[in-house]
Automatic annotation (TrEMBL):
<feature type="domain" description="Urocanase Rossmann-like">
    <location>
        <begin position="219"/>
        <end position="433"/>
    </location>
</feature>
<dbReference type="InterPro" id="IPR038364">
    <property type="entry name" value="Urocanase_central_sf"/>
</dbReference>
<feature type="binding site">
    <location>
        <begin position="131"/>
        <end position="132"/>
    </location>
    <ligand>
        <name>NAD(+)</name>
    </ligand>
</feature>
<comment type="function">
    <text>Catalyzes the conversion of urocanate to 4-imidazolone-5-propionate.</text>
</comment>
<feature type="binding site">
    <location>
        <position position="274"/>
    </location>
    <ligand>
        <name>NAD(+)</name>
    </ligand>
</feature>
<feature type="domain" description="Urocanase C-terminal">
    <location>
        <begin position="439"/>
        <end position="642"/>
    </location>
</feature>
<comment type="similarity">
    <text>Belongs to the urocanase family.</text>
</comment>
<dbReference type="InterPro" id="IPR023636">
    <property type="entry name" value="Urocanase_CS"/>
</dbReference>
<feature type="binding site">
    <location>
        <position position="589"/>
    </location>
    <ligand>
        <name>NAD(+)</name>
    </ligand>
</feature>
<keyword id="KW-0456">Lyase</keyword>
<dbReference type="InterPro" id="IPR036190">
    <property type="entry name" value="Urocanase_sf"/>
</dbReference>
<dbReference type="InterPro" id="IPR023637">
    <property type="entry name" value="Urocanase-like"/>
</dbReference>
<feature type="region of interest" description="Disordered">
    <location>
        <begin position="1"/>
        <end position="26"/>
    </location>
</feature>
<keyword id="KW-0520">NAD</keyword>
<dbReference type="Pfam" id="PF17391">
    <property type="entry name" value="Urocanase_N"/>
</dbReference>
<dbReference type="GO" id="GO:0016153">
    <property type="term" value="F:urocanate hydratase activity"/>
</dbReference>
<dbReference type="Pfam" id="PF17392">
    <property type="entry name" value="Urocanase_C"/>
</dbReference>
Amino acid sequence: MQAIQTKSFKEQITEGIPNELPSPKPYEIDINHAPKRKEILSEEEKKLALRNALRYFEPNQHATLLPEFKEELEKYGRIYMYRLRPDYRMYARPISEYPGKSEQAKAIMLMIQNNLDYAVAQHPHELITYGGNGAVFQNWAQYRLTMKYLSEMTDEQTLVMYSGHPMGLFPSHKDAPRVVVTNGMVIPNYSKPDDWEKMNALGVSQYGQMTAGSYMYIGPQGIVHGTTITVLNGFRKIKKNPEGSIFVTSGLGGMSGAQPKAGNIAGCITICAEVNPKITHIRHSQGWINEVIENVDDLVIRVQKAQAEKEVVSIAYLGNIVDVWERFDSENIHIDLGSDQTSLHNPWAGGYYPVGISFEESNELMANNPELFKTKVKETLVRHAAAINKHTAKGTYFFDYGNAFLLEASRAGADVMAEDGIRFKYPSYVQDIMGPMCFDYGFGPFRWVCASGKPEDLAKTDQIACDVLEEMAKTAPIEIQQQMQDNIKWIKEAQKNKLVVGSQARILYADAEGRMKIAEAFNKAIAENEIGYVILGRDHHDVSGTDSPYRETSNIYDGSSFTADMAIHNVIGDSFRGATWVSIHNGGGVGWGEVINGGFGMVLDGTEDSDRRLKSMLFWDVNNGIARRNWARNEGAIFAIKRAMETQPLLKVTIPNLVDDDLL
């Protein structure tokens, strides 16, 4: 029997998986859906996937759901349980609108719904936030059950999340995390792409990306900020004024969609290619792109005009990026900065598309002839790299954006290796820019969300953060003055750039001292009823949270870049120092099996407990990574950890002794 939904929002949350099934949902063609995943399960494994899905439901519902779930598995390669998708609008409500016994749990519900907001999520009906496969949950039963548990939780319980599945509430204590999240933490020898495909199709593991599966994504604002800093510092590196200069890249998805906006803020001409018409027009309608051009001849004329007039403009080319690189070479259009931010951590399932084949034909090929699709992608990567090489020979500065472009291009046989045959000929943006300029000094993507949902609260927190940074800049050492000034400029212009998508959130790069002082000032403002609760977090892409040899730890040169001790230490240390929730993932950004990354969330409520926790946890969360980078002999990190020891007498870190190169 099917129930007619008349329950309130709070009633639907506390109900969890309903006793009476809701009506089946129509497949909405206007929504940006995930591509069909390739068929990878045997007949017996398909039965296992169905058993796994049906265990969420009472036996009397199995006969109704079995054919439906079987059809989803065959049609989409996954069981999403579309029928269970809630009827209410998905967005981050003010914290007061959530049911529950714990304010911390309500804050987590707010963040989960923000990750699934249609304005935020890449494939909201498939519970995917960004990156093509970065999931919050595997199916809608998991979502419903998790929200129910959070509505019942007290501050003496912890919810354990097992790759999207809520294992249950366990007794703990008020200083323990309210939620512990793991995603994709498989046995190391089973981290090949097909291993993930199989486990995900079975419903036993998921790719949490970075902030998707840890409930800390704030829309494209986070990557806008990081990309802005990267582009600005890229131009500084080549000693070029952004005005009238060209930045060429590709991808307009959940993360990559921020690139045109960042280019505008940096002050250059940005050309960003994308093959998906739907997401291209979404980004244009959201104001993240100034113009869309579908013909490469028109693109050439438009770019030449922009160069001549030194415009600050962002242009989306609706087509394949290879066409842009090759045509700009033949037309002798000089590209100053070049990169790529397609989802090459997921190259065979929609993360990167072959040249010369339409978007629709590619999706057909991906599902029905995956081996031929794979061959076409590899051929495209070889052409892509060859075109880039022609431009770099003319002076273009190209950097890998940590999306596994160089890694997959090398595996495809492209000419991207250095003469030693070990390293890539082009640096990662972390290796060359963000690592030595930011991460080694402890500067990384600190972010916060105003739980009240009020824009005026966000404006007040912007001002508080700006005041703190300006005061710190007065006495900051010369080594970090550039970082301080970049972030003061950013926060002053944040409102003007209209960066909020979804929750009332903000990001800036801050070191441990800055994060603690800003958080302390927020907590004081909450205590004085000037603002509502604030949820702190960060991108996993940070000083300490992620071990990724081709991205976050690509500027670690002591041979330890393939170890993951730092990320594990980070999440364990955060959990007993006061984080409200913690997460640790396999995969994220550069691919399943290529990285271990962790994050946290922390609710500030104006209490002394919050003040104690923020000082303990934020100090560790940053300095753990600086300590490791210092031990790798990174000059900036040695400076930063010595400075940290001067401010905290209980901190004693081993400093490396440097060896004379002539002696070696």
